[in-house]
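Q: Please design a sequence for this.
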């Protein structure tokens, strides 16, 4: 673990704070007589009069300076660079980037080299994470071998080796029979199937949303029907299989409506959205700005507002950074040739808090979509601040503006969609198992 600025590692009391617990929907302020007691990496008490209790005697104090404390964020869609693409990112830089964004648990996509589609590769990544990462690391395993959509992986063996979900990431499974068989098999051991709804035949080389901006720029498009056709297929198959299914990275108003209706009959159905689709639209691509090239693409203002409302009313459960580090040479190209994706771990919390500042989503619901919801859906012990839980939490200042400068990122990649953007909130400190792994606060 990384130590910063001599902050106590295991045993301390964090006082003078405002504590958000989205699990219990509580928002409480503790003065210098109360707060959070941490011992041996766990929270042993949370309350208002802790300093008068005998079990707190001799513990060092950290003054939270009136900042907000929430559970550490859980990011469900992080593309690792290691093994195979260490020039883009490695587990150390990924985890440092996560810590700087208040993220204490990351779920890696299976797109390593070799692909994480077997027990040996999964075990290698887990060992590397234990050696290098300053945050908790979990793995999705590939749903199909080499993520080529042709043959199902040994999901049972991978689940025994602690793969927490199965999906092919940006390569949605096109074969309906194969995804159906996967859902049936996964149900036997209550595994979570994840699929990004995108019919590749309908995308057919498109690179941006089918709207006025695409016409203006003369770029091939990705029509929303490519998403909704696949989403309807997956939901119908899961309705029959009655398993756990997660629709990943929704981007359209129609998708929100489809999920909303389906959740009335499927209690194990969940969905996520990239923060990029909640803050940005296809208008941001003006002048062929490749750092705004995403998959799914940035959509219309109407789609963006519908997605925000879907998060606010819990139709969409999770906000993710969809962190995809790309080297400069893959982004400094003509728009049609540039790689998809941007880095997002370090800006996930400040970017998400823009929705709170704009009065789009209340603070507890917003934090829930970043913490307890992904923890619950992906079966991770995280996302709450209460007795006996791990001391994984983030301190942030909701009223501390700053301008995003990718040159200051912990990530090896700098391809941020928010370069030069002014955010109104900052991450101040991040703790994992009671250790300070990021400190931007003088105490």
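A: Design:
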């Amino acid at each position: 673990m990384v130590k910063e600025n001599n902050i106590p590692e295991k045993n301390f009391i964090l006082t003078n704070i405002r504590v958000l617990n989205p699990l219990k929907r509580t928002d409480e302020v503790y003065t210098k007589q109360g707060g959070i007691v941490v011992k041996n990496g766990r929270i042993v008490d949370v309350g208002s009069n802790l300093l008068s209790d005998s079990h707190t005697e001799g513990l060092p104090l950290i003054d939270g300076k009136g900042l907000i404390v929430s559970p550490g964020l859980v990011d469900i869609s992080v593309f690792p660079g290691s093994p195979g693409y260490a020039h883009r990112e490695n587990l150390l830089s990924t985890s440092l980037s996560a810590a700087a964004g208040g993220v204490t648990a990351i779920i890696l996509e299976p797109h390593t080299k070799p692909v994480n589609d077997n027990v040996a590769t999964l075990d290698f990544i887990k060992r590397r994470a234990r050696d290098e990462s300053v945050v908790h690391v979990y793995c999705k395993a590939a749903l199909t071998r080499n993520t080529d959509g042709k043959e199902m992986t040994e999901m049972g063996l991978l689940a025994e080796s602690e793969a927490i979900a199965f999906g092919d990431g940006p390569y949605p499974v096109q074969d309906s029979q194969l995804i159906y068989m996967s859902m049936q098999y996964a149900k036997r051991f209550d595994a979570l199937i994840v699929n990004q709804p995108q019919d590749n035949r309908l995308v057919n080389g498109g690179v941006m949303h089918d709207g006025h901006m695409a016409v203006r720029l003369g770029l091939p498009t990705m029509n929303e029907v490519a998403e909704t056709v696949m989403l309807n297929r997956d939901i119908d198959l899961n309705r029959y299989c009655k398993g756990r299914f997660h629709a990943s990275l929704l981007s359209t108003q129609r998708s929100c409506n489809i999920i909303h209706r389906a959740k009335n009959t499927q209690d194990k159905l969940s969905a996520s959205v990239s923060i990029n689709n909640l803050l940005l639209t296809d208008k941001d691509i003006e002048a062929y700005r490749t750092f705004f090239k995403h998959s799914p693409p940035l959509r219309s203002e109407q789609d963006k507002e519908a997605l925000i409302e879907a998060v606010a009313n819990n139709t969409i459960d999770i906000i993710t950074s969809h962190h995809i580090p790309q080297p400069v040479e893959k982004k400094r190209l003509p728009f049609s040739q540039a790689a998809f994706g941007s880095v997002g771990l370090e800006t996930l919390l400040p970017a998400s808090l823009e929705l709170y500042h704009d009065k789009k989503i209340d603070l507890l619901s917003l934090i829930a979509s970043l913490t307890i919801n992904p923890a619950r859906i992906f079966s991770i012990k995280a996302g709450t601040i209460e007795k006996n839980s791990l001391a994984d939490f983030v301190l942030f200042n909701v009223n501390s503006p700053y301008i995003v400068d990718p040159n200051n990122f912990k990530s090896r990649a700098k391809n941020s969609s928010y370069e030069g953007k002014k955010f109104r909130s900052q991450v101040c400190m991040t703790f994992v198992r009671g250790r300070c792994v990021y400190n931007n606060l003088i105490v």
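Q: Thanks. Anything notable?
A: The longest helix spans residues 225-241. The chain is about 30% helix and 20% strand.
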